[in-house]
Amino acid sequence: MSEKVERIKCLIIGSGPAGYTAAIYAARADMKPVIYTGLEPGGQLTTTTEVDNFPGYPEGIDGPSMMIQLQQQAERFGTEVRMGMITSIELSDEVGGIHKAVVDNTTNIEAETVIISTGATAKYLGLPSEQRLRGGGVSACAVCDGFFFKGQDVAIVGGGDTAAEESTYLANICNKVTLLVRKGEMRASKAMQHRVNNTPNLEVRYYTEVDEVLGDQVVEGLRLVNNQTGEKEEIKITGLFIAIGHKPNTDIFKGQLEMDETGYIITKGKSTKTNKPGVFASGDVQDKEYRQAITAAGTGCMAALDAERYLAAVESKEEVEA
Ligand code: NDP
User: Fold this and answer.
1) Which pLDDT score, from 0 to 100, does residue 277 have?
2) What's the rounded Cα separation, in Å, for the pair 117 and 21?
3) pLDDT, average across residues 73-82
4) Which residues line ligand 1 (CB under 6 A)?
């Protein structure tokens, strides 16, 4: 391991809309932020095509271009954007304490504040045909991509609140929606199930799994399997949405930060404060409900403001509010 230790005011981990928005605000507040992009620079939006629901882009923008623009905006105010993964971290318990991170298992870095915006990763079924057709009609975000299937027949996999919400969202846009639930019941709340059951162009199939996604370049159909009888059947659809949950990228913080039972970081009240002083969380890593680029950006802004206030209080030796 290298001996050189760099000390910075503000370390931002993760480069999605939350991380870059935090960087824009932190840089403008003269905190000289350093952002480590992680393995997927730009985050989840780089895996989507058109982003049509981010305010300020009347014609829409493709996800990768939007992330390049956010990066450029953050750099314009002096953010240092570095490729690299934070592979381990030791967060201080002390107000004004120094947090110690290791980049790519080799470089030590010390930070007065840390903004975590490592996001969450959508889970997929893991079928080779599904992976091959990602971007060709297979999506993990109905709100992002549903519009492209206007008037068409689509299917969605999952039985939780996300699948329930997204299937009714899709039913408003598409001709017909088939919801595929692997058990004999849904896990979604009763209210959400009620909404699903009262949507006329939405059919729920229980005990049903995807055996294969059919299509060469784009999705043309599904081969389904009934997991009770083993019976197989093909249906024609043009879009397949996967809504089987997300995994927050919080492994390196386990045992240090308070998280819920599924690994999302818990923030205090309306703020982005975590249980460690000077450590803030923004974006999907602390939000399993809204998960939109615009909401992630909003909490990124909040995290930078919270970090700035924290530093000001530490520097003036005021009592730091827990
Ligand atoms: P959940 O983990 O709650 O549900 C995942 C669903 O996907 C389950 O029905 C599960 O089936 C199914 N599933 C998992 N793996 C597979 C697979 N390989 N094949 C087929 N089906 C599979 O995730 P959600 O994203 O729905 O919700 C996450 C959290 O966010 C929850 O706490 C939820 O309440 C909350 N949320 C709240 C909303 C709201 O209040 N408006 C909106 C969206 C989410 P099984 O049941 O068989 O395990």
Assistant:
1) 98
2) 10
3) 97
4) 125, 157-163, 165, 182-183, 187, 244-245, 288-289
The mean-pLDDT minimum among 33-42, 49-58, 187-196 falls in 49-58
- On whether the CB atoms of residues 80 and 34 are closer than 8 A, the answer is yes
Residue type at position 312:
A
**Cα 167 to averaged position of ligand 1 atoms, centre (Å):** 13
User: Measured from the CA of 123, which atom of ligand 1 is nearest?
Assistant: 15
**Strand order of the sheet with strand 138-139?**
138-139, 239-242, 153-157, 176-180, 202-205
What pTM was estimated for this model as a whole?
Answer: 0.81
Which is nearest to 237 in space by CA: 247, 223, 248, 227? 223
- CA dihedral for 64, 107, 30, 319, sign (positive or negative): positive
As given in the structure block, the two tokens for residue 127 are 């079928």
Please give the number of the atom of ligand 1 that sits closest to the Cα of 288: 30
Compute the distance between CA of residue 228 and CA of residue 241 in angstroms, rounded to an integer.
23
CB contact at 8 A, 243 and 144: no
| Residue to mutate, 162, 186, 227, 292, ligand 1, most ligand atoms under 8 Å from C-beta | 162
The protein residue with its alpha carbon nearest to ligand 1, atom 7, reads 244
Give me the active site residues, please. 141, 144-145
Determine the Cα–Cα distance for residues 14 and 41; give it in Å rounded to an integer.
8
pLDDT digit string, tens, across residues 189-243: 999 999 999 999 999 999 999 999 999 999 999 999 999 999 999 999 999 999 9
Q: How far is the CA of 246 from the centre of ligand 1 (A)?
A: 8
